[in-house]
Structure formats: C-alpha cells, structure tokens
Specification:
Length: 502
C-alpha cells in the first residue's frame, strides 16, 4: 500500500480538506444507494434453482411446522447440511411478514447492514471517518457482498459472526476499549457456529494465530479477552442446539461434523452429500473466485500493490507499513478464507465472503490518498455503481422475461392463474426442482412416467410439468385430453383432462 495509507487522515489536511469533506459526505450516500438498489430485485426477481429456493423452502417448512430445532429438507427428511441460524431468521421473517421472496431475502440484507456497520467501526477507529465511509462504499459495491445481500444464503450470517469476532478483537486491543467488545468476540463465534458450524472457528482462529505469530504479543492477546469465561458463554449459547438436534434426529453430528467438515474438503467427489452435488474445481480456484467476488475493487487493490512493489520509494513505504499492528491483522483476516480453501476442490465462490470486509479496508487504505486531489467527477461513483447497476439490469431483464430463468415460479404462476389451477394438482415428471417445491408451497409432487396411468383415469384434471422432449410421447398416448398452457426454456405445463370429459 502507498505510504499515505499509513495515516489516511494526514493526506486530507488543508488545502484539500474541504474537497475531502465533500467527497466523504458523498460516500455514505453512494453506499446507501447501492444497498437500496439491492432491494429492487429482492422484491421482483424470482428465485432460480438451486441454492436460493432450496434454503427458502427449508425456512418455509420451519415456519409452517413450527419446528425450530431441526431444519427440514422436505417433510420427513432432516436437513443436516447447515445449522439453523439463517433458517431461524428467514422463518421468523415469514411469520412476521408473510411468505414472499422479499421477506425470505430480507434477513440477508439486514445481516449485510450489520457487516457494513462493523467494517465502518473498525476502519474509522484505524484511520478516521473518511476511511470508514470509503470502506463501507467499497464493501457494499463489491460483487459478492452485493449479490449476497439480496439472496437466501447462509454465508452472510457466517460472515456477520466472523466479522464481529475479528472487529471485536481488534478494538479490544485498543487502550480504554469498551468492555462490550471483549464479549462481542465470543458472541461472534456463537453466531458463526450457529450459522455454518466449526468453520467459523477456523476463519477467526487463522487470522488471530497469524497476528499473534507476526506481532509476538501473546501476553497482550491473552489479556485482551476473557478467554475462559467467553468460551463458556459461547458454549452455553451453541451446545444446547447441537445436542437437541442430535437427540431429535440421531446421526446429525456424524454427518455434519465429520462429513461436512472433513470428508467434503479432502474428497472432491464426496458421495456422502445428501442435499446437493459435489463441486470438483482445480486446486487454487478459490483465488480466482476471490478476484470475481471482489470486483471491481479487488483488482484495484492489486494494481495499487503492484505499483508499490515496482517503485523503490513505495517499496520502502510498504515495508514500513507492514510494521503496523492493524495491517498485521487485516491482511490475514482478508485472505484466510482463500488460503484455507486453496487445496480444496469442493468449493463455491461464496466461501471467500468472510474475508471481504477486511479486504475492503485494505483497498480503502490504499485509495484514500487519491481523494485528497479532485479526481474526475465520475471516477469513484462509476466504479462503485458498476457492479450494482450491472447486476440490477440483468435482474430486471429476467423480471421482464422470467421464462428464461431456471425457476418454476412463472410456471406455477401460470398454473394458479387458470380457473381450476391448484398447486396441489401439479405433478412434475422426473426430479422436482427446489423452486417448484417452494413456489407451490409444498403442493407439487414428483412422478415417474410409469406412475401416470394411476392418475389419468380419475374424475379430476391434473397438471403436469415436463420437459419438451417428453411431450411427444404423452400426446400420442392421451391425444385430445392434453391442453398446453405454458412453455419456457426448460418445461411445458399441460392440463390432462379427466376421462369423464372425453
């Protein structure tokens, strides 16, 4: 990072102070616009298979059943893949506001607000108000945080927990820090453990260990937090649910702790996954995911770092900056997730989200000196709005053309618009998509082609969703009894009239 990044406030002194104040005043407005823009597609865009509707259906079942211990994959099948915190939040939102795509997505947006607030707290303590505001803008407008803020995922809740812990640790090390931060470290661990499990401890522990080794201030680290009482507090919050979940559905602990946290990462084609499909990516792909997830700001930070390495005076400033205790925690916190998953092939791009709040602070520290000089007026807003506007425009395209989505939402809407349309009469030929389960409110059912005969001779019409390649055989078999009502890129909706009508 440039030398000025060591003391961000110094670079904004007079005569540039008034300009810096104007710039700083616009940063939060831009960040607020970014977060408000996310609300638009949250309300309008249907969920596409597979992740969003899968988690949304789990939350819907929790709200419907009133079972707040075991998340259910489908009635009778427990969902052992994730702890319940995100589902508690989503099911609670459904209970409060009713079932709607916006309702189920809202907890992720609120979690991201919490992450932004924590990032602002840490950045402004380290470099002043302008650094805090620039950090918020950078983080809010990064690709993955922007997408995650409006999606039904578990990762925002994990990131809320890990960010709380690491920010609390950093602030607890300051002289005269409020005592609440010392306990917030352990509250963050509890949030992470209830959001995604022991991975939270790893993603917090790696930066803490790296900071301790780099600083060699183990005594200060030990004194900064109430380790024994705090760990007991975390256990009292977390362990009761883990015990209750195992007692209610025996086998949960073996699957979740051993399968999801060991076999998944050492075996790229792990066949034990009960709820999804394994991802076999080349080793090291997580760093490419980090680049995508941090757009456009990650590449900006890489350019700033490259310039520092290529210029002797800046290299010297960079070496001096590495003596800063704050940077010695920010750097491992930003890159710990990518480092941890470097040797794993079973990965998703969302896995890097916990490091992005700290990467945003690093990039902000490098960029802040540029705000001391009037840039072109469109530069900062253009960079900040690039990803949010692109994602929003793509989303609005699919709002206007929902048939292009990998979603059952428009098909179910077309069914329910018919005079006798009822999701309870919908059968899906072949595997039932998660979006069909969610949008039919559990009414749609999967059926095999050899089971159709038992349903077609009744007195009531049935509705069948099938791939177009399967339509010809049914037309040959049932002829005029078939009425086509909807077609999209994946499926056709047909009404099969009762025998009595023919």
């Amino acid at each position: 990072m440039p030398e000025a990044a060591l003391s961000p406030e110094r670079s904004l002194q007079a005569p540039a102070a008034s300009h810096g104040t104007r710039i700083a005043g616009s940063l939060l407005w831009l960040a607020g616009l970014v977060m408000a823009l996310r609300l638009l597609t949250m309300a309008l865009l249907p969920m596409s298979d597979t992740t969003e509707p899968r988690y949304a259906e789990t939350a819907r079942l929790m709200a419907e059943s009133g079972d707040w211990i075991t998340p259910w994959f489908e009635p009778g099948v427990p969902f052992w893949g994730k702890p319940p915190l995100s589902f508690w939040a989503q099911a609670g939102a459904i209970d409060l506001f009713g079932l709607h795509d916006f309702t189920v997505r809202l907890p992720s947006w609120l979690a991201m607000l919490g992450i932004l607030w924590l990032s602002w707290q840490l950045a402004r303590r380290q470099g002043g108000e302008r650094l805090g505001q620039l950090t918020v803008l950078i983080l809010a407008s990064m690709a993955l945080p922007f997408v995650s803020a409006g999606a039904v995922l578990t990762d925002p809740f994990l990131t809320l927990g890990t960010t709380l812990s690491l920010v609390a640790l950093a602030l607890s090390m300051e002289p005269g820090a409020p005592a609440g931060w010392r306990w917030a470290f352990f509250a963050g661990l509890a949030i992470g453990l209830l959001a995604k499990g022991p991975l939270a401890v790893v993603l917090v522990g790696l930066p803490v260990l790296a900071w301790g080794l780099w600083q060699r201030h183990w005594r200060d680290l030990w004194r900064a937090l109430p380790w024994w009482r705090g760990s007991l507090l975390t256990a009292l919050i977390v362990v009761p649910w883990y015990v209750a979940a195992e007692l209610k559905t025996p086998g949960f602990l073996d699957y979740f702790l051993v399968g999801e946290h060991l076999r998944r990462f050492i075996d790229p084609g792990w066949a034990g996954d009960l709820y999804g499909s394994a991802h076999d990516e080349p080793r090291g792909t997580i760093w490419l995911f980090l680049l995508w997830a941090s757009l456009p700001w990650g590449p900006v930070g890489a350019v700033l770092l490259g310039r520092s390495l290529l210029t002797p005076s800046r290299r010297a400033a960079l070496r001096r900056s590495l003596g800063d205790s704050a940077l010695r925690l920010l750097i491992p916190a930003a890159f710990a997730p990518a480092l941890f998953f470097s040797l794993s092939g079973n990965i998703l791009w969302t896995y890097v989200l916990p490091g992005l709040p700290f990467l945003a602070i690093l990039v902000a520290r490098g960029l802040l000196p540029a705000l001391a000089h009037p840039p072109k007026p469109w530069t900062l807003p253009g960079a900040a709005m690039a990803v949010p506007l692109t994602v929003t425009l793509i989303g609005l395209h699919f709002v206007a053309h929902p048939e292009q989505l990998r979603s059952a939402a428009p098909l179910v809407d077309a069914l329910e618009a018919l005079p006798d349309g009822d999701a309870a009469s919908l059968y899906w030929l072949g595997d039932l998509p998660f979006s069909a389960r969610y949008y039919s409110r559990g009414g749609a059912r999967s059926i095999a082609s050899d089971e159709l005969a038992a349903l077609t001779d009744g007195d009531h019409a049935i509705f069948l969703a099938l791939r177009e390649r399967d339509l010809e055989g049914l037309q040959t078999r049932y002829g005029p009894r078939l009425e086509q009502h909807y077609r999209d890129a994946r499926h056709v909706l047909i009404r099969l009239a009762p025998t009595a009508n023919n």
